[in-house]
Structure to design on (135 residues):
């Protein structure tokens, strides 16, 4: 194969990579997130006016799917969460602006609340426990 064909193949493969999508372009309607009138699969990002990332979200076939993260304007994590087929799953964590944990919540693989949820004050002291195993 000559060099010009190899260079073209490399350039073409690099240019076909997914470009980041702005979450503001994702439309949510009747439980489905879409881009250009098609259920969206992929990831999107949103940013504060300062250019600092405010969220990173993932979708599959128009449903929330994968790890979602939200950030405070100081770049500290605000929320770390997980979805599968549009349902909340696993451990969800919320943080104060200063980076200390604010709340821990848990969901089953079917999206039901489960476990003991913990709520903290800004110093890190547990101020409330909610037991979702007894409901």
């Amino acid at each position: 194969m000559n060099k010009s064909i190899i260079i073209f193949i490399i350039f073409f493969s690099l240019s076909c990579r997914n470009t980041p999508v702005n979450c503001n372009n994702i439309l949510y309607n009747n439980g489905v997130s879409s881009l250009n009138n098609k259920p969206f699969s992929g990831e999107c990002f949103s940013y504060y006016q300062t250019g600092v990332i405010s969220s990173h979200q993932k979708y599959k076939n128009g449903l929330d799917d994968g790890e979602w993260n939200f950030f405070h304007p100081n770049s500290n994590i605000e929320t770390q969460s997980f979805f599968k087929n549009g349902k909340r799953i696993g451990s969800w964590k919320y943080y104060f602006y200063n980076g200390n944990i604010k709340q821990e919540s848990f969901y089953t693989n079917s999206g039901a609340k489960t476990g003991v949820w913990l709520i903290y004050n800004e110093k890190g002291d547990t101020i409330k426990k909610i037991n979702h195993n007894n409901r």
In short: Helices lie at 3-15. The chain has one domain: 3-131. The longest helix spans residues 3-15. The radius of gyration is 20 Å.
